[in-house]
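We were asked to recover a plausible sequence for a given structure. The inputs and outputs are reproduced exactly as logged, with field labels preserved.

PROBLEM: sequence recovery
POSITIONS: 90
GIVEN STRUCTURE:
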């Protein structure tokens, strides 16, 4: 999603970008994605979710729109606090 600097980016778009950044970092660390159906099933079982994650297969390497509200909230939390995070490193 490329925009000119003069255009406004919504909070949801920023959350989607953050989720894409997070997915790329997971992929670079060696995690593998699941199919959409596998991901939906695994998210229903926390124990199974942890077992897959331990084997570097992550259910949340999926499109932002398919995440549940709890997972979307993690991206939102980061976006809402990005100024505070950046202040730590300045």
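RECOVERED SEQUENCE:
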């Amino acid at each position: 999603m490329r925009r000119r600097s003069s255009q406004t980016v919504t909070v949801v778009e920023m959350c989607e970008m953050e989720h894409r950044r997070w997915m790329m970092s997971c992929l670079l660390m060696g995690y593998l994605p699941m199919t959409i159906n596998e991901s939906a099933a695994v998210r229903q079982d926390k124990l199974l979710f942890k077992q897959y994650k331990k084997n570097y297969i992550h259910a949340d390497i999926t499109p932002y729109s398919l995440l549940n509200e709890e997972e979307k909230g993690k991206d939102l939390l980061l976006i809402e606090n990005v100024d505070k995070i950046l202040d730590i490193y300045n």
